[in-house]
Predict the structure.
Amino acid sequence: MFITIHAATGALVGTQIANPILSFLINFALHFVMDIIPHGDKELGKRFFGLLNKKLNEEEKIKSLAAYGLIDYIVFVFFLLFMFKNFTFAKDDGVIWGIVGGIIPDLLVASYVLTKSKKIKWFFDFHKWNHHLLIGRMKNDIPLKAGIAMQILLFAFLFMLLAEINLVK
Ligand SMILES: [Zn+2]
């Protein structure tokens, strides 16, 4: 899923858990639960740019993935800026460490793709295995457009809850 979704979830859960370590751990685990939900990003970068049937070499595949990731990252940065400017709870330790826990699995995955370091290969493999847990049993992943639409709706819902909590806190 988009890191923005993982971050928004981390922030939301973090508003309810004051302990930073606990919030980190719960959101780290929650990342994997959310990744199981089919969201259309099998062969992510290639699909996004309509290159699914093209034979890309390893470098081109990484490039399309990086471009997709960059878009996600830009949205994520603006979400963070907005949150720190407008939501008073954004400074809470539970919220900050909830966000870190929620996005760190994908940062580790990206580190592996870039470095191919043997130290984190097991983590990369586990993340991939988990990600394919459900879609591997389905004939096809859901269409990417549906996956993106679903995530935009999910984000709107999470954002609404965050705005609501900001009012009562
Ligand atoms: Zn992930």
